[in-house]
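User: Quick one: structure for sequence A, then sequence B.

Assistant: Sequence A:
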Amino acid sequence: MMRKLPPVLLAAGLVLVVTLSSAPRAPLYFGDRPVLPRAGFLKALFKAQIGLVADYFWLLTINRVGSARKISEYRDIYYYADLTTDLDPRFAKVYTFAGITIPIHFGREEYANVEESSRILRKGMVNAPEDKRIHFQLAYNLMFFERRYREAATIIEELAKEPGAPEWYSGLATRLYAQSGDFDTSLGLAQALRDSAEDDETRAYYERRVNEILQERLLQELDAAIQRYQQREGRPPTSLEALVASRDVRELPADPLGGKLFIGEDGRSYSTAARFRLEIIYDEKTEDGERLVPKPLDSKSQ
């Protein structure tokens, strides 16, 4: 059998075995990216063994995660995962693994390598659309890293239609649509979920969600008025009543949830009826570990 193998394939196979048997080395670089073979070259050279070659670069992808210490080294993972999935586009696990491990948290909700992470996940959605973990991970990137809430909402809304999908997916989609400013879609979805609810608890949940969406639309309108005031006056208003006096708003609107509206320390508007606004909530804490919650700009003047 061995005698029938073309010499070039036999030599290539031996090189591959020797390479697989040795400890992985740090890659060579061309500019800011590791030097890797072209997928087309590997497919032509190892046509019959391409699955084995894809597995080899999958192992190297995992190895790069274990050895990564710097932001650029975590970005290298993208190139290994990209090559692996060029060799085997249906290798679904690679997309999720790389998409999760590539981004690095700077602190203060800032992340590096987000573009590469989302790029490999988008590639996975095209090549392995049946793997819904890839879809959810991309939605997670869009929510928390890129703040592209409408695109994230569309993905989550589609995932909510899948058999066995968690019930909270639909609620999350309404929140994301509202945060993106697409209140019509958010309201339409929440009202449809409320009207089709099969039990009182779910119906009450989406009834409140409808009012939360109306409240968030109102708060975003007040935020815009606050910004107009600040740009014109060179200082923020001390209270919402100041917006009425300056005619930035005709009158103080009623809160759909029955709370009292106020300006927070961060210069945005809030309501006493909800601890947080209808937005993605980041787990921000003080240096003492206290959870950050919106507080009035000046409680004595509210």
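Sequence B:
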Amino acid sequence: MMDYFHEESVTKINAGLNSLIYVICYIGMVIFALFAVQGLMTILNGVISIPSIVITLICGALAYGCFVLKNNQRIEYDYTFTNGILDIAKIINNSRRKKLLSVDIREFEVIAPISDEGFKRMLNHKGIQNRYNYFLNPGPRLYYGVFTHDGVKSMLVFEPSDKMLELFKIFNPRNVKTK
């Protein structure tokens, strides 16, 4: 039997604003961390006062907040298709991988473009318990899929390539609609 494997990454197309936020957060993180370390050194040298403790804690929290915001500016989604199984992972700042979803394509009731009339109906469907939005570029390239996994009906909105959709059709030909 032939193995079917395809992997693709989805990145944000217009990332100019995200790059600017990344740089600003990086600079803010360094500056606030330096203030926090300076305040901590003051406290460790025996100069303990309420304002220095508060300023140290605030600067440390702001440095951490800048770190988290910086990392959230560089996000990718990896879609991996292996013999009928779709795995989706989130790549944060090109360094951490977080597995988000693994589902058999044969479990999908429908996979179609969001321009399909069924999409709006499914958005308001009360039986759908989980909604997964794993896309970065809103627009006409988005697809939705409704599936039941472990007895839970869920909806996925994502942006697969044409190659990925062809593979979906091989394993679930009746329920995959393309443009």
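The mean pLDDT is 92. The two ends are 29 Å apart (CA to CA).

User: Thanks, that's what I needed.
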